């Protein structure tokens, strides 16, 4: 029994040491080229409600969870617009996002405030840049900070979130190029 307890304490100590050595700040960034002009892509992208067609979390949430609720406040596509949601789906959880800045045809900034399954406040950016004649590069970025010891969980979740960004960008490309 004593050996098992010592082994368990040893595993916990190793996990805490690894978490202490890991970065607390993170940045997830994915991009795609869409065969449409930048103003057209930007106009579509800044309208948060369009996320029901391409954003993996919005496509799930209130759309597929019978107990899910989604509310909007303000003018969509304008600074101050808030998208709030609540879902029993652990992938979606409870939270809100607010448009905090818009640089026409270039950048949309949002503050993402998560409540469940874990509390977090992160910055999300969508940038659009011309990538050629009638082509636009869209970059989806999330930056944030996760304090010790939860930064070890965040480290492993980054790949999952990055994969969702890739899926979302592919959905966005499909929606805009149809």
What does this protein look like?
The structure is a single chain. The chain is an alpha+beta fold. The chain has a single domain (24-177), classed as Alpha-D-Glucose-1,6-Bisphosphate, Chain A, domain 4, CATH 3.30.530.20. Helix content is 38%, strand content 36%. It has helices spanning 2-21, 38-45, 51-54, 56-59, 61-64, 151-177, and strands at 25-34, 69-73, 82-86, 94-103, 107-116, 120-132, 135-145. It has a 7-stranded antiparallel β-sheet with strand order 1-7-6-5-4-3-2. A hairpin with a 3-residue loop joins strand 4 and strand 5 (107-116). The longest helix is centred in the C-terminal third of the chain and has 27 residues, at 151-177. The radius of gyration is 19 Å and the shape is elongated. It starts with a helix and ends with a helix.
């Amino acid at each position: 029994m004593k050996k098992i307890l010592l082994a368990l304490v040893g595993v916990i100590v190793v996990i805490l040491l690894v978490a202490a050595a890991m970065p607390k700040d993170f940045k997830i960034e994915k991009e795609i080229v869409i065969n449409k002009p930048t103003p057209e892509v930007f106009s579509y992208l800044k309208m948060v409600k369009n996320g029901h067609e391409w954003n993996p979390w919005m496509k799930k949430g209130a759309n597929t969870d019978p107990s899910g609720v989604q509310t909007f406040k303000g003018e969509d596509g304008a600074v101050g617009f808030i998208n709030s949601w609540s879902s029993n789906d652990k992938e979606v959880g409870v939270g809100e996002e607010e448009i905090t800045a818009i640089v026409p045809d270039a950048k949309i900034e949002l503050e993402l405030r998560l409540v469940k399954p874990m509390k977090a406040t992160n910055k999300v950016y969508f940038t659009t840049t011309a990538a050629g004649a009638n082509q636009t590069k869209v970059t989806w970025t999330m930056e944030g900070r996760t304090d010790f010891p939860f930064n070890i969980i965040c480290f492993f979740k980054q790949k999952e979130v990055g994969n969702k960004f890739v899926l979302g960008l592919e959905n966005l490309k499909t929606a805009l190029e149809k």
